[in-house]
Amino acid sequence: MTYPLAKLPTIDASRYECISGKEFYGPNGLKFNVYEDVGQPPDCPNDGGYRTIYGPSVSFKRIIHANTNKSLNDAFNGRILLLRPGDDLLRAQQVSFIAAHRESGLLTKLHLRWCALVPTVDFMTDIADHISDPHNKKRLREEAWASTLDQGIAEGELWLTNSRVKIKIKRDEFAKMHKVGRTIADMGVSASLVGFMLTHRLKTHMIKALVDHGHESHFLMSPSEEGLQEAFDSMLNPKYTSYFLYFSDDSTYTVRTPEGVRWWNIDISKCDCSHTPRLFQLLLEMTPPCSQRIMEVLIGQCAADLVIDAPERRYGRHKVRLRSKNGEPHLLSGSTLTTIINNLACLLIRLSFQEITGVVTTAKLVNAARTCGYIITAEECHVFEKVQFLKHSPTLDVSGTYRPLLNLGVLLRATGTCRGDLPGRGPLPARAAAFQRLLLNGMYNTSHFPLIDSMKAKVASAKFSAKDERIALMRIGETKLVHKTHFTFDEASIARRYDLSLADIRELTEGLGNAGFGEVHDSHASRVILFTDYGLED
Question: Is 511 helix (H, G, I), strand (E, B) or coil?
Answer without folding.
Answer: helix
